[in-house]
């Protein structure tokens, strides 16, 4: 029976292939039998080897990834309007991949028994589906094969820009540096140094017979196993792993993971029996995968559509993953990722400003609060932000406030679209309490500092980690100065803040075992955020505030500054700085692995070494908390 | 009042069938439960004076809505309130097929069975339905009820500076959860928006400690 919902479904699906080819009657008939499926983030839609469903799926809202769980790789990424799960439609066998909701998603389940006869009647539909199925991508037209069957003019260049790793061909170095297996190791090493390369191919009769890399030199020669006068043959890895020219990045990655090697040799026909054409190293893969931050920044700045920023942020995650894998120092990773995130936010503000009917009546500043303000936000989390605008005459205040509230609503909505969840405590500039003039903020800050109850301390602790995301810096400096002046007048505030910093639950119990959550969804998990990271963050805040240091909101940078200011505690502060970075890296790794915030950790999944590493940071937490207790005489206000 | 109350034996067959559903055991597993998300459009806000114009509902089983299984009916009207026409766009003797109040109730009871009813500001919709039942000499609905307006507040973190409002409109929920407001102010359209909001609220509440069906039912 035709109804409102089926009309709504038809309205959506008619825009996407293969449904755009169907006639209206079939379309409505189909829509009446659709299933609307809601999937929480990370929920499985089907697993490998699961019996075929009687539906295939179209993403209505959100995104779905098709994964190979054994190699833990994402094979395909399905966005709004993409179809997946076509296997039962074409082959009567179980699923070969796992489908998982990458975000909170709404899917349309298209009934196969209704759809099949329609597809049979319409050759174009069948062709599309076969293509989708065979190429492992659900929309063969939108990518490089676009226009092969029938060109869709101007099919949003949105997709062209985004490099989906799966389809991108890996570019390899074509300048081959080779030697003979009979060359001495010394000569080969000299050649590698001269050409600035990390590997060299051993060639015999024009064919690749082996490869030596820096690692081989380290492990087999410097260790003394082989003299440098020995031949390359004695240390080379053989046979070499060969692949044909048209290798996608994902394939290259999988090949490297499978054989646990870092170099692939590209040959004419992909076997060792033809001439080598080039070498593809792990580094090459990394470069093509993560694009490059400068390119991304440019791409974000050029964007006029908020939806497109969301797509670009995907590349940021790829970049992050690559950096962590390469073990780049976290301080540096955080800098790059924060810079990219800041650029995204700035662009959202720019786009929102352009949507306003008039330019802002006065200067303003958009503040990032919490983890984002501290530049410690590597994974997507909630948005915490605030807006401050220049003081205006009292009679203009209501209409100025209204203007900035409207702007804030647009910005927070835009941030939500690109992947920042709304703050459940509503600490966002769209809340009238967080969108104020400079004077109003000063009054509020004075109140918090002068009346430090638990709530005021909590508010201050979120607010005091602010940084400028967009707009006028002088407004921010003005607020910072006000905070320091007020804190000087009410030194007791620091004691309360210090006390707040000691409230986090202890990470370990009496026997030095991890303390895990007792109930709720995360029962038996370790809460890394509140038991390990927060104490360090809170301690850094109160200490830096007591030194009236302005403009540093990042926790490890705060500790580094403290180490400079208090040479006698140098060691402890540097240890804190290190621990913060280590914990954040840990959290980020966990988060990427499980595609969540990384806050809760399943201890059983950790190696002994990882557990030891975690426990080492706990020792530092205890020491810094003792320092705070003594310095701020916290016990005085408790007694 | 007892004088007018029909004894159980006098109740029509469809009510008895409806009532018997509640003798069946229900699943303890939250994900196995069936929810009927509904919305009613009415001639106004008075339980006694006003009447139901239409009922729209969708059924959620295992986080899935089947388009085939949606419920949409329009009721014949003897009373007509000019003011509410603009909001709902339902005209008396419009082109929709309308049925009598009693057969609407019969169809609804057959649809809802012993599911858990979900509605936004459920008190109003339930009040309208129960009053309609009473007019037709039938007892009140027996289903457990969840109000999305109430459970949404549970997803918010209370802090003294940022008080959650006491009342959130369906528009605000749609906005918060980025749900399209297409077909807003039709019973089925609103029921669908409420259903999506319900699913999103539940997924957020599941993360909280002590999540249970009990915590949701008013």
TrEMBL record, chain A:
Residue ranges annotated for the Cyclic nucleotide-binding domain, each copy included: 56-136
Transmembrane segments: none
All copies of domain CBS, residue ranges: 172-228, 236-295
Molecular function in Gene Ontology: [protein-PII] uridylyltransferase activity
InterPro entries: CBS_dom, CBS_dom_sf, CBS_domain-containing, cNMP-bd_dom, cNMP-bd_dom_sf, DUF294_put_nucleoTrafse_sb-bd, GlnD_Uridyltrans_N, RmlC-like_jellyroll
Keywords: CBS domain, Repeat
SUPFAM superfamilies (alphabetical): cAMP-binding domain-like, CBS-domain pair
PANTHER family assigned: CBS DOMAIN-CONTAINING PROTEIN CBSX2, CHLOROPLASTIC, CBS DOMAIN-CONTAINING PROTEIN YHCV
Protein name: CBS domain-containing protein
Organism: Maribacter orientalis
UniProtKB/TrEMBL annotation, chain B:
Function: DNA polymerase III is a complex, multichain enzyme responsible for most of the replicative synthesis in bacteria. The epsilon subunit contain the editing function and is a proofreading 3'-5' exonuclease.
Assembly and oligomerization: DNA polymerase III contains a core (composed of alpha, epsilon and theta chains) that associates with a tau subunit. This core dimerizes to form the POLIII' complex. PolIII' associates with the gamma complex (composed of gamma, delta, delta', psi and chi chains) and with the beta chain to form the complete DNA polymerase III complex.
Annotated GO MF terms: 3'-5' exonuclease activity; DNA binding; DNA-directed DNA polymerase activity
Gene Ontology process terms (BP): DNA replication
NCBIfam families: dnaq
UniProt KW keywords: Exonuclease, Hydrolase, Nuclease
Annotated Gene3D superfamilies: Ribonuclease H-like superfamily/Ribonuclease H
Originating species: Maribacter orientalis
One Pfam match: RNase_T
Name assigned to this protein: DNA polymerase-3 subunit epsilon
């Amino acid at each position: 029976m035709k109804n409102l919902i089926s009309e709504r479904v038809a309205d959506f699906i008619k825009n996407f292939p293969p449904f755009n080819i169907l006639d209206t009657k079939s379309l409505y008939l189909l829509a009446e039998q659709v299933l609307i499926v809601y999937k929480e983030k990370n929920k499985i839609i089907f697993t490998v080897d699961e019996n075929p469903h009687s539906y295939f799926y179209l993403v209505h809202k959100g995104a779905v990834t098709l994964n190979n769980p054994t190699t833990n790789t994402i094979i395909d990424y399905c966005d709004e309007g993409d179809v997946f799960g076509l296997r039962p439609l074409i082959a009567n066998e179980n699923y070969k991949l796992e489908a998982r909701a990458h975000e909170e998603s709404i899917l349309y389940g298209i009934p196969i028994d209704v759809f099949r006869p329609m597809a049979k009647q319409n050759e174009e539909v069948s062709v599309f589906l076969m293509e989708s199925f065979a190429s492992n991508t659900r929309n063969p037209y939108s990518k490089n094969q676009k226009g092969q069957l029938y060109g869709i003019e101007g099919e949003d260049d949105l997709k062209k820009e985004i490099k989906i790793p799966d389809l991108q061909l890996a570019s390899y170095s074509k300048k081959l540096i080779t030697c003979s297996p009979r060359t001495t190791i010394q000569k080969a090493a000299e050649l590698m140094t001269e050409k600035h390369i990390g590997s060299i191919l051993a060639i015999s009769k024009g064919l690749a017979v082996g490869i030596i890399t820096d690692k081989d030199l380290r492990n087999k020669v410097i260790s003394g196993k082989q003299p440098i006068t020995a031949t390359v043959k004695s240390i080379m890895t053989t046979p070499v792993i060969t692949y044909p020219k048209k290798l996608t990045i994902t394939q290259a990655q999988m090949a490297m993971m499978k054989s646990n090697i870092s170099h692939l040799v590209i040959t004419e026909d992909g076997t060792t029996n033809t001439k080598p054409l080039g070498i593809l190293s792990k580094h090459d893969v990394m470069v093509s995968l993560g694009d490059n931050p400068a390119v991304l920044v440019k791409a974000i700045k050029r964007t006029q559509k908020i939806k497109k920023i969301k797509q670009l942020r995907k590349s940021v995650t790829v970049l992050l993953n690559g950096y962590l894998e390469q073990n780049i120092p976290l301080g540096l990773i955080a800098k790059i990722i924060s810079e990219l995130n800041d650029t995204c936010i700035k662009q959202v503000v720019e786009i929102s400003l352009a949507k306003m009917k008039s330019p802002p009546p006065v200067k303003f500043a958009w503040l990032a609060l919490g983890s984002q303000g501290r530049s410690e936000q590597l994974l997507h989390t909630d948005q915490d932000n605030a807006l401050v605008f220049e003081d205006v005459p009292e009679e203009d205040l209501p209409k100025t406030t209204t203007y900035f509230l409207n702007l804030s609503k647009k910005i927070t909505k835009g941030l939500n679209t690109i992947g920042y969840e709304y703050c459940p405590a509503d600490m966002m500039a769209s809340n009238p309490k967080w969108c104020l003039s400079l004077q109003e903020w000063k009054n509020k800050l004075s109140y918090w500092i002068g009346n430090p109850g638990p709530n005021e301390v909590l508010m201050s602790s979120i607010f005091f980690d602010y940084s400028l995301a967009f707009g006028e810096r002088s407004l921010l400096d003005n607020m910072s100065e006000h905070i320091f002046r007020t804190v000087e007048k009410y030194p007791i505030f620091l004691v309360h803040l210090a006390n707040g910093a000691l409230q986090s639950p202890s990470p370990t119990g009496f026997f030095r075992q991890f303390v895990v959550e007792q109930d709720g969804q995360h029962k038996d998990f370790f809460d890394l955020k509140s038991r390990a990271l927060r104490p360090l963050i809170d301690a850094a805040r109160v200490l830096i505030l007591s030194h009236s240091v302005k403009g540093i909101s990042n926790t490890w940078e705060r500790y580094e500054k403290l180490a400079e200011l208090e040479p006698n505690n140098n060691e402890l502060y540097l240890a804190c700085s290190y621990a913060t970075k280590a914990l954040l890296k840990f959290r980020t790794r966990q988060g990427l692995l499980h595609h969540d915030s990384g806050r809760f950790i399943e201890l059983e999944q950790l190696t002994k070494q990882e557990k030891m590493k975690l426990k080492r940071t706990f020792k530092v937490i205890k020491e810094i908390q003792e320092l705070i207790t003594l310095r701020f005489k916290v016990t005085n206000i408790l007694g | 009042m007892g004088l007018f109350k029909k004894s159980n034996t006098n109740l029509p067959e469809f009510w008895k069938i409806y009532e018997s559903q509640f003798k069946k055991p229900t699943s303890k597993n939250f994900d196995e439960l069936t929810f009927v998300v509904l919305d009613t459009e009415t001639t106004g806000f008075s339980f006694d004076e006003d009447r139901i114009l239409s009922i729209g509902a969708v059924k959620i089983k295992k986080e899935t809505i089947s388009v085939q299984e949606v419920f949409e009916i329009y009721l014949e009207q003897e009373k007509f309130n000019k003011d509410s026409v603009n909001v709902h766009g339902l005209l008396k003797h419009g082109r929709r097929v309308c049925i009598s109040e009693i057969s609407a109730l019969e169809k609804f009871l057959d649809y809802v069975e012993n599911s858990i009813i979900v509605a936004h500001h459920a008190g109003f919709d339930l009040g309208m339905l129960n009053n309609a039942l009473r007019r037709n000499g039938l007892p009140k609905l027996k289903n457990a009820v969840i109000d999305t307006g109430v459970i949404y507040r549970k997803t918010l973190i209370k802090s003294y500076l940022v008080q959650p409002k006491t009342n959130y409109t369906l528009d605000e929920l749609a906005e918060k959860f980025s749900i399209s407001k297409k077909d807003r102010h039709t019973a089925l359209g609103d029921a669908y928006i409420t259903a999506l909001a319900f699913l999103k609220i539940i997924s957020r509440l599941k993360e909280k400690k002590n999540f249970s069906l009990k915590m949701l039912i008013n």
